[in-house]
């Protein structure tokens, strides 16, 4: 997305922006990213359908009892969240004054953020359940 947006910014400055081509370039990328995020969220939900693991992890986080691995995973998730959010915000800022682009890409960008926030809310599952499972397998 960034590569296409950077080119579009340059093209806009020189009055050569092809909005239709930009939509055609960005739409499949946004849709693919959204699908990956939805699949990730689905996998998280499948591992903890009743929320027990997530609740346990939330308690550990509140008590500041996270292991180094759990902290690393949380930092990685924070990085992912930051990068996706930054990409979405940059795209939103670029299209805010362009009604056609906003109409075509705005809803897709909004849809892309939904599974991301669901993943973040389910991070307790990752921090506790998956690492415990891996620890048991290694043992």
TrEMBL record:
Residues 60-71 have a biased composition (Basic and acidic residues). Keywords: Membrane, Transmembrane, Transmembrane helix. The chain crosses the membrane at residues 116-138. Residues 48-71 are annotated as: Disordered. Residues 2-138 form the DUF6987 domain. The keyword Transmembrane applies. This is DUF6987 domain-containing protein. It comes from Ascodesmis nigricans. The lineage of its organism: Eukaryota, Fungi, Dikarya, Ascomycota, Pezizomycotina.
